[in-house]
Every structure is written in C-alpha cells, then in structure tokens.
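<discrete_fold_record>
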Amino acid sequence: MKAIFYLFIVFSLVLLGIFFIVSQAVTILGFSGESFFGGEIWRILSYPLAHVGISHLLENLVALFIVILLSYELNLSMKEFTLVFLLSGILVAIFSGILFPYLLIVGSSLGIYSIFGALALKDQEIMPQYLFLGIFGIIIFLNAAYTIYTSNDYTQSAYHAAGFISGAALISVRKLRRKKRILQ
C-alpha cells in the first residue's frame, strides 16, 4: 500500500477525532485574518481540520478519497501532494486574511481543490491535458451551480476556485524548475 493511502487513513482519523471530540473546533481552529494577524498563528495550519457539520465533514472525506485515488493513479508523489495541499492553503488563507480579515475559513476543501488543480496540469500520459482541464472545470462549474441553487453566497465557490488555481500554479512552478534542472 502506498504511503498516500496511509496519509488518507491518518488524516481521516484526525478529522473525525477533532469533529467528535473538540466541540468548539470551528471557533478554536478556524482561520480568520483578524485572529491570525492578531497572533494566533496556528490557525494557518489548523483550519483544514475543523468542519461546520457532519455533512461538511463527510463531503470533504469523500472528495479527499477521490483526490487520493487520482493522485495515486496519476503518480502525484506524497511530497508533491503534501506541498500543494499545505502551500495552497497557506497562500490562499493569507491572501484572504488580508482582503477579508473577518471571514472565517474552515474545512479541507481548499486543499482538495488545489490537488485537483495540480492533477489537471501535471504531466499526463493517460489523457490529453485539455481533457483534464475540462473535467476539473466542470467540477468547479457544478460547485458554483450548486451554490446558486442552494442560495448560498459565492464565498465557498470562490475559495474552491482559488484552491484549484493555486494548486495548478504550484505544480506549474515545480514543472518549470524540473525542466530547468534537466536543461542544465
């Protein structure tokens, strides 16, 4: 069994444990620019661990499982997976914290969408890249349509799109660095 599947098992157990044991997880672990820039620096890494409700948690666990399977099939290394998941979350959260300091961010979906973005631009031999971008574009479109249908605000869809874009950008930078090393 590849290490990435162990990551899924451990991360799932941590998410479930926090959800059922820490009753105020959203308040304690959620990210907001106001809290983070006020000195509560742990929030930059802890917000993916907090979920608003059981449906939010289950949706993220299912999506995480799908992303893990795709990562395994498309040879996204454990190092790339972890870097994209964490760095995208950090970059988008800091940017959000500066622009919207009172907005609370929780859940793993930002990191999950960043992995989708990374997979869409990673070197593919299975399917042409334009097909991958189209498939993942449909996922983001369906998320936005669901948001409109449920009459929620567009914040969630905007964060998912930001995660997708940041994951794609991070994997692109990694590809460029790898090409430079090959040419040298």
Summary: Residues 3-183 form a domain with the Rhomboid-like fold fold (CATH 1.20.1540.10). The chain has one domain: 3-183. The mean pLDDT is 85.
